[in-house]
Design goal:
Layout (H helix, E strand, L loop, with lengths): L1 H16 L9 E5 L1 H12 L6 E5 L10 H8 L2 H10 L2 H4 L6 E7 L7 H13 L5 E5 L11 H19 L2
Parallel strand pairs: 1-2, 2-3, 3-4
Helix pairs in contact: 1-2
């Protein structure tokens, strides 16, 4: 929660400092924890972030690898309210901008159910978004032509959303 707040505060400071920034074209992207941050910023600060692209992200911290998550947040049973508050899925209803989500169905680090649950939450709130699934790809989403395809999909998304904002 604090990291998303800090990111938004820094962006607002840049807007106030640099007049050349087009605030209608501010986007963010990230992979894994960075994808979670992207969504937390986009969902919590829709006035700042207009576009986001999240890859292999954690949508619900209660579903993530407990050996990692508990290191920073303690046991779920003792801190569930903060697990929920810190999860992007909790705030998905606030989406106003453009969002692209990408995930490998064979991800053994951030399980695919996180992607599906977020998708269902966005649909429940009638939020429009783009998505791409990579069958049987792991957390790195690679193999064969996959990395190239993923990067080309990302470029196409950014070109589309930034062209739409002229």
């Amino acid at each position: 929660i604090l990291a998303a707040h800090d990111q938004a505060a820094a962006a607002k400071k840049m807007f106030a400092t640099y007049s050349f920034i087009d605030t209608n074209k501010v986007g963010m992207w990230g992979w894994s924890g960075g994808g979670q941050m992207t969504m937390n910023c986009l969902f919590r600060y829709p006035d700042v972030y207009k576009s986001g692209l999240a890859v292999a992200f954690v949508a619900d911290q209660r579903l993530y690898d407990n050996i990692y998550q508990e290191r920073y947040m303690g046991l779920l049973e003792e801190n569930e309210a903060n697990y929920i508050a810190g999860s992007p899925i909790t705030h998905a209803k606030n989406l106003k901008g453009d969002l692209m989500i990408m995930h490998g169905t064979g991800d053994d680090n951030v399980h695919y159910q996180s992607f599906e649950r977020l998708t269902n939450e966005l649909i429940k709130h009638n939020k429009m978004f783009d998505m791409m699934s990579y069958p049987m790809r792991d957390h790195g989403i690679r193999g064969g032509n996959t990395s190239f395809h993923l990067r080309q999909t990302m470029v196409r998304y950014w070109k589309k959303v930034f062209a739409d904002k002229n």
